[in-house]
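During the reporting period the student researcher (J.K.) took over the structure-prediction task from the postdoctoral fellow and processed the backlog of single-chain submissions. One of the processed entries is reproduced below for the supervisory committee.
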Amino acid sequence: QVQLVESGGGLVQAGGSLRLSCAASGRIFSVNAMGWYRQAPGKQRELVAESTLGESTNYSDSVKGRFTISRDNAKNTVYLQMNSLKPEDTDVYYCNFRGEVGTTIWLRWYEEVWGQGTLVTVSS
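J.K. obtained the following structure tokens:
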């Protein structure tokens, strides 16, 4: 079972910065992608940024140029550096893991795992 531990959320003023971290643990054989999503009340969860196999990155247009996603493969950890935060960035941010997991090398499967969410609040 893969578990995700998120940290770094909190309250900041507009224009400030936060750094989110998400560490994956468990029997992980390979990571296809790790990223961050956010979900507003009554809306679907949407992509903020993701880091895919080979360190390719994807960003939503609303955060492009302000947020930077990075990965530490040795620690199975993904980071989201959020700069120039705006009040509209306020949301619950969820870490996402997609990769190959299993109990042994002979018993592996693809799995998607979500973190519990960390709240980011940006005040004006």
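The committee noted the following: The longest strand covers residues 91-104.
J.K. will present the remaining backlog at the next meeting.
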